[in-house]
Write a structure and sequence with these properties.
309 residues; alpha/beta; 7-stranded mixed sheet; 16% strand
Length: 309
C-alpha cells in the first residue's frame, strides 16, 4: 500500500515548500479550501447588499494568530486570482513585519505578483490606514478589523447591540458623544470614529485615523472589512454615503498638523507620523503612506529647498 502523502507532516515531506508556492502540494490554491472560499464570498455579497451591516461567517484557523489580521487575510485569500496584483500595508507602511509576512505568505500560496505601488495594485489589504492616492473602481481595499462593533463603547452585550442595530436605536452613542463634549469640550474618540453608512447602519471603520474617515464617503473602490476573531464581515460599496456622527453645532474634525510637512519628501496635506530622531533627538514628521512618500520624494529630490521661505 502506498503511503498517504497527506498524512506526512510538512517537516517530513521534502517538497512541502513547493506545495505552498502554487496549486500543487498539500494545500489548495490560496490555502483555503473551496468550501470556505464560497462561504466567505456569499457572506461578502450579503454584506455588500446591506452596506454597513455586520454579517457573521465561519472564521477559519489561519497560520497566524487571531488578532494579527486573520480576517483580512481570509477575505484576501477568498477573492484573489492569478491576474491580481497584491499590496499589503500596516499603518501605511509596506515594510512593517506584519505586512511583509502576510504578502509573502499570500504569494507563496498563490504565485501572484506583489507591489508597493498603490495605483498598480488590484487588491490592497490594509491595517489602520487608507492609502493617500485615490483608489480606482477596479480596486478592492480590504481592512483588518480588531473590533467590528461600534456600540461596544456603550453596550457590552452582543445580544443587545444586535437589537439596537435592528431597531436603528443609536441614541446611547449620541449621548456618549454629547457627554464627551460636556466633559472635555471636544469628542475624544480618535481612531474607530463611528460613522453612519447609507443613512441606516452605524459602523466601526476599523482603527483608521479621523484623517481617513471622510475618504470612506463616495469612494470609487469597494471597501471590505473583516474581523477574524469576532467572525464578522461588513462592506461599503462604491459611491455609498458614509457620514461621521456629528452635531449641528459641533462638527466632525480631522487631525490638524498646523502647516507641517513631511521631512523626507516635503509633501503637505498628508497624514504624518511623528518620529523622534535617534541622533539629534528632534521631532520629525514623515508621511504615514510610504508608497506615496517614495513617489513624492522621487519627484522632489530636494524637499528641504521647498521648506525654505
Amino acid at each position: 500500500m502506498k503511503p498517504n502523502p497527506l498524512a506526512q507532516t510538512p517537516m517530513q515531506s521534502p517538497d512541502w515548500r513547493d506545495g505552498l508556492k502554487h496549486r500543487s502540494g498539500h494545500y489548495s490554491y490560496a490555502f483555503l479550501d473551496e468550501g470556505a472560499k464560497r462561504e466567505i464570498r456569499r457572506k461578502m455579497l450579503k454584506a455588500v447588499a446591506l452596506p454597513g451591516c455586520q454579517v457573521s461567517f465561519g472564521s477559519r484557523e489561519m497560520p497566524i494568530a487571531r488578532g494579527w489580521g486573520t480576517g483580512g487575510l481570509q477575505l484576501t485569500l477568498a477573492l484573489i486570482g492569478d491576474d491580481d496584483v497584491l499590496k499589503v500595508i500596516d499603518q501605511g507602511s509596506d515594510d512593517s513585519v506584519n505586512a511583509v509576512n502576510i504578502k509573502q505568505f499570500v504569494q507563496q500560496v498563490t504565485g501572484v505578483r506583489l507591489t508597493t505601488d498603490t495605483t498598480a495594485a488590484t487588491l490592497i489589504q490594509t491595517r489602520h490606514r487608507i492609502p493617500e492616492e485615490t483608489l480606482a473602481p477596479h480596486q478592492l481595499l480590504i481592512f483588518q478589523v480588531p473590533i467590528p462593533e461600534p456600540l461596544r463603547l456603550v453596550e457590552p452585550s452582543e445580544q443587545k447591540t444586535r437589537r439596537m442595530h435592528a431597531e436603528a436605536d443609536y441614541s446611547r452613542m449620541w449621548l456618549y458623544l454629547y457627554e464627551d463634549i460636556v466633559k472635555f469640550n471636544e469628542i475624544t474618540i480618535g481612531a474607530r470614529y463611528p460613522v453612519m453608512v447609507n443613512h441606516r447602519y452605524l459602523m466601526d471603520p476599523s482603527p483608521i485615523p479621523r484623517w481617513d474617515v471622510p475618504r470612506l464617503n463616495q469612494n470609487d473602490a469597494l471597501l471590505l472589512f473583516c474581523a477574524g476573531r469576532e467572525k464578522r464581515i461588513y462592506a461599503i460599496p462604491p459611491h455609498t454615503d458614509v457620514r461621521p456622527l456629528e452635531f449641528d453645532d459641533f462638527a466632525f474634525r480631522v487631525e490638524a498638523f498646523h502647516g507641517r510637512r513631511c521631512d523626507r519628501c516635503g509633501s503637505v496635506g498628508t497624514f504624518l507620523d511623528e518620529v523622534i530622531d535617534d541622533e539629534s533627538g528632534q521631532r520629525i514628521y514623515t508621511c504615514s503612506d510610504t508608497s506615496f512618500c517614495d513617489k513624492h520624494k522621487a519627484a522632489n529630490p530636494n524637499p528641504q529647498s521647498e521648506n525654505k521661505p
